[in-house]
Design goal:
Blueprint lengths: L2 E5 L9 H15 L3 E7 L13 E4 L2 E6 L9 H19 L7 E4 L9 H8 L4 E5 L6 H6 L2 H19 L4 E3 L7
Parallel strand pairs: 1-2, 1-5, 2-4, 5-6, 6-7
Antiparallel strand pairs: 3-4
Amino acid sequence: MPRLLLCYHFFHPDDVAGARQFAELAREQQRRGWEVAVLTSDRSWRDPRVRYPPTEDWEGIRIHRVFRPGWDQARPLGRLANSGWLLGAFLLRALRLAPPDAVVIGSDPAFAPLAAIGVRAAFPSAALVHWCFDLYPEAIEAEGGGRAVQTLAPAARALMGAAYRRFDAIADLVLRMR
């Protein structure tokens, strides 16, 4: 049975759109005969005070939740700190799982495609797909952020380009994202 690993900031039982989309992807791939594992955070999207258990079996899908600090996601520095934390935690947790045949990485947390660099090194034969909802650093630039964002954006763009090149496929939402 082929193994699929999904990586996204939020997942079942959260009801935010991305969590629901990844849950449906997980269900459908499990129905098609894949062994599906999910790496996600242990905090609720709606209320970060709500925490979920570290592991859960849901409809034949194994959910692995990593600890995420309760840093404020509404502020750019808090969101970036949470993202960095989660990307490192996802990679460390993935190394303890059975090697996947395919990995799908979403756009959340911010800069999530950077995980492709470590995933490609750890699982060189796995098919690596980015399900792209947001582009970084462009999404942060669009929110504003001032001088710091403008100063760091060129380096972030170069780093993200290196990450995007690690993927075998990138599924985007609209033609304009290309």
